[in-house]
Amino acid sequence: MLRLRDTPVRQKLMMVMGITTLAAVAAALVAFVVYDQMTLPAHDETQNRIALYLLALTVLTAFCGATTLLLADRLQHLISTPLAKLAAAAREVSASHNFSVRVPVTSRDEIGTLTTAFNEMLDQLQHTQGDREMEIHERQNAELALRDSEDTLRRLAFYDQLTGLPNRALFDDRLELALVQAQRGNRVVGVMFIDLDRFKLINDSLGHSAGDELLRGVADRMRGALRRSDTLARLGGDEFIVLLPSLADTADAATVAQKIIRAVGIPFMVAQQEWYATVSIGISLFPNDGTDAETLIKNADVAMYRAKDRGRDGYEMYTPELQERAMRRVTLENELRMALSRGEFVLHYQPLVDLDDSAIIGAEALLRWQHPARGLIAPGDFIPVAEETGLIVPIGQWVLRTACLAAKTWNESSGKNLRIAVNLTTRQFQHADLVEQVKAILDETTLTPNLLELEITEHSAMSDSEQTAETLRELKALGVRLSIDDFGIGYSSLGTLKRFPLDSLKIDRTFVKDIATDNRDAALVQAIVAIGQALQVRITAEGVETAEQSQILRDQGCDSFQGFLFSKAVPAADFTKLL
Fold first, then answer.
1. How far apart are CA 315 and CA 304, in angstroms?
2. Is the CB of residue 371 less than 8 Å from the CB of residue 377?
């Protein structure tokens, strides 16, 4: 059997019950006395006693009523009010889930214990809610981070990081979709392959940061020249590609290309300098030039290379003839890569003749390709490909070594000091190891350095005049001779030219050809000779074919010449016979 503990609240309740019992007993006693007196004979004393009893009963009753009210108020203060506060707090927590609510503890009885337990429960719930909110917050942060990661991965997967343009993967996806829609709607789709002309020059001269700045600027210009439905993507480096998903006519593609060329043609401010940029564009069209994405892109690329071959800063529409030309070029490149290892290159030598006594004073080494199937191939047919692919560097080393060995042999056998002239292409001249390569070959062949003459074109010399001057000074320190080839057809600055440690200028054959019949050519040659004399360098004329041309050049002060008047370029064995 359970026993109630003797707690304060129980004590208060027992006290109330006791007082109430006493009041009831007193009332019963009074009633008994009244009843008892009412059965006795009436007389005055009895009436007085009854009145006194009644008064006492009234007072006692009033006292009991007051006591009862006082006890009820006390019970409300001790029990009802705290319980009401607990109920109100419970309702507030239930309605608002606000676990920070607390009920003041006003006593140390069971109500106080209950209130304390209620508050402790709220403490636990608040702590649990805090953990849950933290968990929710962490989960939300994780979800945001995941979304950010997904967005980052998507940008990395489908967008170029430098320009913000779509990359090849996203472009291919859009092109495939455009082709499907075009097949259903019988529409024309255009693909434009775009290459930024001479971009390497900016990277080499101003640095990659400036190059990146220009790429972003070009991307913005081209994007502004396109419709919202078009897609401009960057393939990498200086190559871009455009999707024209819906063309009303094939001529519309040419119109878009012209807009792009004009937009890019406006000068850019790069590294606080004004730069002019141009682009070469190749265009292929669905369905005439291909019905799948790969073919359309390939044919647009072929057309772009044709635009470059035609001088850059323009566009070219794809034709089947261009594909045949491209295939020939690919075949040539593959054969060119094997030609050096197979020993298919040969050197021919054209005599350098003194104009005063017609004596051979040296030779220019000219590269030829002895193709096993197509015979002798002129340098103009393969040098541009070798230059573009970088094959010119190992080929150039072979040319320099072979020419130096030939000159060494001729000088030893003839007892003369014949000079050997070797052309350097732009890519060779800009190669970082050029000076070391020349020194190594001179050491290997033991040719006297001042018998080697290295020739560069005006274009190579002026593309970066500061670097050119530095490279020429380093080469000059080796003891070799230096010459500007094809002088007069480039854009030489006389102020820059005088800073170069040159030994000779070679007048281009275009000025010599009509020197006997065109006074303007004669005057230009005279001016070039005067420049050479002012710079204290020797002057050599190229392409001399007649005695009359030779005499005019001699009269104007030219020092030497090359040309069919004396001999064409011949193999080494035939040159030996000319000595």
1. 7
2. yes
- Structure token digits, residue 252: 């519309």
Residue in 204, 195, 198 with CA at minimum distance from that of residue 306: 195
Residue with tokens 């933290």: 134
Q: Does the reported pTM lie above 0.90?
A: no
Separation between Cα atoms, residue 117 and residue 124, nearest integer Å: 11
449 contact partners, CB below 8 Å, separation of at least 6? 442, 478, 479, 480
pLDDT for res 44: 59
User: DSSP string spanning 212-235?
Assistant: HHHHHHHHHHHHHTS-TT-EEEEE
- Are the CB atoms for 240 and 232 separated by under 8 Å? yes
Q: Measure the CA–CA gap between 94 and 87, rounded to whole angstroms.
A: 10
Q: Which one is predicted more confidently, 454 or 494?
A: 454
Instruction: Write the CB contacts of 346 (distance below 8 Å, at least 6 apart in sequence).
Output: 367, 368, 369, 370, 571
Task: Return the structure tokens found at 367.
Answer: 């590269």
pLDDT at 1 over 50: no
Alpha helices in 76-167 (DSSP H): 81-96, 110-158
Pick the closest to residue 401 from 355, 359, 340 (CA basis).
340
Q: What are the two backbone dihedrals, phi and then psi, of residue 507, each rounded to the nearest 5 degrees?
A: -75, 130
Average pLDDT score over residue span 55-66: 67
